[in-house]
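> call design_seq(struct)
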């Protein structure tokens, strides 16, 4: 059985006090519930604060980004070893905002994935097409290219060692969501590609999350799709009502 995951990507939002309060409320709400698996991705200065609040619950901690080296002169960056030492079990890699705003290319993302799968964290690799690519009918080409390049020479022993998040760039923070059918079509294609890259067993055991304007109002239908194994939630993960609404949609 694939794990169903609801991950909240807080992006560059919340102060220490706000993060502590929200994390505590979510930890109290989730408690020892393990289905769905709830993951919080706060900004790096808030990781320890959030980690402390969720420590006694089943909520897991994820970074929003990681570097491909272990240590050294990389001002502003964090390594997987360091992130693990403050309580992270996961890290996002290749979020579209990192790709577009911070110019992260597939080669760099591939280096990060290769390092992280060999270490203590599990990567949540984000992929997705732009509006222009979708309108030109190039969605599948883009997805195929990203998966092939980002996962080049990546070795994993089971499908649980890696999570994929499909986030169409045109649906992130825009209020536009892919229809459940549109999302399912791409998720099924991603699983087929994962089978070619790894094995059928690995592909079938891998959770593929959908992201892009997921909210309580659309979560039930999206999460009901056979190849959609959870959600990566941005804006709607910043308040208790909307985030728990999504958790309850599973
Ligand atoms: P959104 O962001 O839910 O605000 O669209 C999703 C994401 O970027 O992970």
């Amino acid at each position: 059985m694939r794990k169903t995951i609801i991950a909240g990507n807080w992006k560059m939002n919340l102060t220490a006090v706000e993060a502590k309060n929200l994390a505590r409320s979510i930890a109290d709400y989730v408690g020892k519930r393990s289905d769905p698996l709830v993951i919080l991705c706060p900004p790096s200065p808030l990781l320890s604060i959030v980690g402390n609040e969720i420590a006694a619950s089943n909520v897991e901690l994820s970074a929003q980004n990681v570097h491909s080296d272990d240590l050294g002169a990389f001002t502003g960056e964090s390594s997987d070893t360091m992130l693990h030492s403050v309580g992270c079990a996961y890290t996002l890699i290749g979020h579209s905002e990192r790709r577009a705003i911070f110019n992260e290319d597939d080669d760099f993302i591939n280096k990060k994935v290769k390092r992280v799968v060999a270490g203590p964290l599990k990567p949540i690799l984000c992929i997705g097409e732009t509006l222009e690519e979708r309108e030109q009918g190039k969605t599948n080409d883009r997805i195929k290219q990203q998966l092939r390049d980002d996962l080049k020479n990546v070795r994993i022993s089971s499908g649980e060692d890696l999570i994929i998040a499909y986030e169409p760039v045109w649906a992130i923070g825009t209020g536009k969501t892919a229809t459940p059918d549109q999302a399912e079509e791409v998720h099924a294609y991603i699983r087929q590609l994962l089978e070619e890259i790894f094995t059928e067993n690995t592909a079938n055991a891998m959770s593929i999350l959908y992201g892009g304007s997921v909210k309580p109002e659309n979560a039930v239908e999206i999460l009901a799709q056979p190849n959609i194994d959870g959600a990566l939630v941005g804006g709607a993960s910043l308040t208790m009502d909307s985030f728990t609404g999504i958790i309850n949609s599973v």
